[in-house]
Request: fold
Amino acid sequence: MADPNRTDPRGGEQWWRKGKPGRLKSSMVGISAAAVLGVYAAGYVSSGDGAGATVKAASPASAPLATATAIPPATATAAPRGPAGRTLPGGEVPPTVAPTATPVTARTPVAAGTYKDGSYTGTGVGPHGGMTVAVAVEGGRITSVDITACNTRWPCSRISELPSRVLAAQSAQVQYVTRATDSSVAFVRAVSAALEQAR
Amino acid sequence: MTTVTLQRATAARVFMDTLVAFEVLHEDADTESADRAINEAFGWFAEVERTCSRFDPASELRRLCERTDQPVRPSALLFAAIAFAVELAERTNGAFDPAVGARMEAAGFDTNYRTGERQPQRTPGGAMWRDIEVDREGGTVRLRRPLTIDLGAVAKGMAVDLAARAFAGFPGFVIDAGGDIFAGGTNADGGPWVIGLRDPSGEGTLAGRVAISDAAICTSGDYERRAADGHHILDPRGSGSATECIGVTVIAESAMAADALATAAFVLGPEDGIALLEEEGADGCLATSDGRTVTTRGFEAYLR
Reply:
């Protein structure tokens, strides 16, 4: 078993933030990642679940069974399942769900740690560049977060609300800015790196 | 002192004969969007199951398998799953083979877990992946002879990957679908998720722990889903179950790739299996039936 305190060959204790280097797009992992993105973008017809609020618009390309030579619709239906149109009325639990598996979401608060007072800097790298932040802690609370260097592909103004989210949450774990995920990733990693020194 | 800020939402349901469990970290203000994401993620599992099930006569996969010798254009989801499976079959020269469905049925893996109904063997054995013709430009599939496609090693991983997209905006989340796990973002302490590896030969003991973030970890082993005369990983090139390995664990950024590569490596055995993982952009470790453990060069970096 590896020594948990060793320095990782990928460069430091936070190697896991940097992602796996050097897999090729043409590798099976690269092909799989691209295929999943395509399927996700196409969406699905029925939410298959709950209130139906999560239904994504299905593009024509994803319409099931658009056939070069059409697959005939199912005639035998042994297993209980939704209507052939696969669009379930809002709020109805679809019949494909096992009765013992009622979707119950349980919630428990996660206590954030107490931070040591001081000034800390941290650097985080996302899929398209990195950034450095300065974080100040006074009286155990994060009192300021400044982006001191920004080398991301897109301007840092796109994530301008994230520092205030850190202050509100008193944690690096804030929700990303929509449509600015890559910059958000770098920011959250930078703040996490800074706050790890404050633990 | 800091205030309590993060919520940990958990939910679990059964899909594909497996308990699918989600854990999502979110802020108080994002409770609604977390619930929406959880619903959407379960919806992806439902969608993949009803599309790719080998046990449901009404699944799109089963209906596709009834069409021989003519090009068929499946949904984007089914086409992606089949194209991926056939590509891996080609690269492993058949050590991984989605056309193994008929022999899975013959070996006793033929019961729909939801209905308990058995699916008698419908297609003759002897078919192989070369009998599945995939036209990537046209998005069509043509079966050259009657065969049963099995997407067991692909579909669950794809569902995990799709669910992971649904959770992409949250600070941290874990999807656990039986042997397939995806851990995204960070845990509540801002560190990587630490996942325990089950000892393939032991009784619930841990062989080790790995730290991952935005990555999937999948295990193929012979300790689950045994039929009368073998486990569920058949060697498509021979007549019975693969015997050289007792467990393979694979880490990759995609669960579909990790699961399928684990299955392929299990069949290929230690030398070729590890070479495959390194070639295809994954890391992993493999336990052999004679008691050895072999890993990819990058695997040790994940160990805790």
User: Anything to note?
Assistant: Confidence is low (pLDDT under 50) at residues 1-13, 47-102 of chain A. Chain A has two domains: 22-107, 118-196.
